Amino acid sequence: MRPTLPILAIALLLAAPAFAQQLPVEAQDGDPAVDVVEPGDDPDAVESAASGVPLEEIKRYVAVYNAIKEAYVEPVDDKALMGSAIRGLLLDLDPHSAYLDRDDAEAFDEDTNGAYDGIGVEVQQLPDGKVKVIAPIDDTPAARAGIKAGDTIIAVDGKTLTPASAEGQGPLRGEPGSTVKLTVVREGEPKPLQISVTRGTIKVASVRGRMLEPGYAYIRISAFQADTATDFESTLKRLQAGSGSGKLRGLVLDLRSNPGGLLTTAVQIADDLLDAGGIVSTRGRTPISDAKFSATPGDLMQGAPVAVLVDAGSASASEVLAGALHDNKRARVVGSRTFGKGSVQTLLPLDNGDSVKLTTARYYTPSGKSIQARGIEPDVVLQPEGKEAAAAHADYAEALLPGHLQGDEEVAGSNAGDVLEGDAPIAAALAELKKPAVSASASVERP
User: Which positions make up the signal peptide (predicted)?
Assistant: First the structure.
């Protein structure tokens, strides 16, 4: 099943350099770019026309560049200054587009393969250099030290984070066994927390599972990596074999605080649980950005009910999977509104080993709804209990990130969800599995 998905992923990667070459020559409607150059024209105008960039903008850039070179208080290396300029091109586009030097690009690849040296946390760098935690990865130093989704890291080892802090692999990466002290701002805490984390080699087992009770299984997916779909299938088969009858009566699929990962992996798992129907589509400005994924016959659960557990830390590929199962009425979604990262990033390699991570498309669920800045709204809404309830709602959502890409169905102020921890949400999802089948559009609030 799904023999074409790895081929598609490779095709997208191979097409990236050609795609990158197309980007600079595209002009928006109304751009005053010069399209036709007559012989004898100013050489600067010829170069401007070739790049599709207005000549006046080039002159303004050169003026600022020269001013820095001549008058800045300290000498600035040309390479460093140009690198800063390139990063600046991407900084104000949206929170997910970025320039990655060679080390960062390699680290990005390591993350998808599930092994790297660091603290084990998925983060989003903010424009001021501070770092927002999307989610700590299960059973990593960050999770064990108490780092939580929604935390903002403002300093590392006493040094305040700035946009320059992200250069190289960043301050959170480092040798296994070394200790890093994080200054963390957390909603509900009167002052920043000081949290020490000992770095390790992060080998993330992205799938684990167990039986909740006879006939009902639980599978936790912490991230979508290259081998996650294979691990999901083997874990599900193991649980089915251990049930006695070889079949399950229901499955709780836990995607809480799963920050996402590889789209193709999420598509494969959706396909494992669907017999037919759409999974996700992407739409962008160029043909290579448009794609549509559909399920093939072969539901590994053989129609048994599924409950998908989500919260505010469920982002990107997690939302794709939850949306696919929800829109096909294959599963009930239980928890709180998801993060709302509904944009696609394409890694465009450059000739010097660096890469550009560029937002190129938006995700749409099978019903045609955009995830961006809206997220997935659960069928059954859960709220935190006890002492953690006051701090769990941390205004934590894509829609609240500075400079975020506008969502098609964005509603200001109503997009933040709760971070749900502990076993109580699992028990609530299990209870949903035991209910008679109802419409996937029903919504119930539970304490």
Answer: 1-20
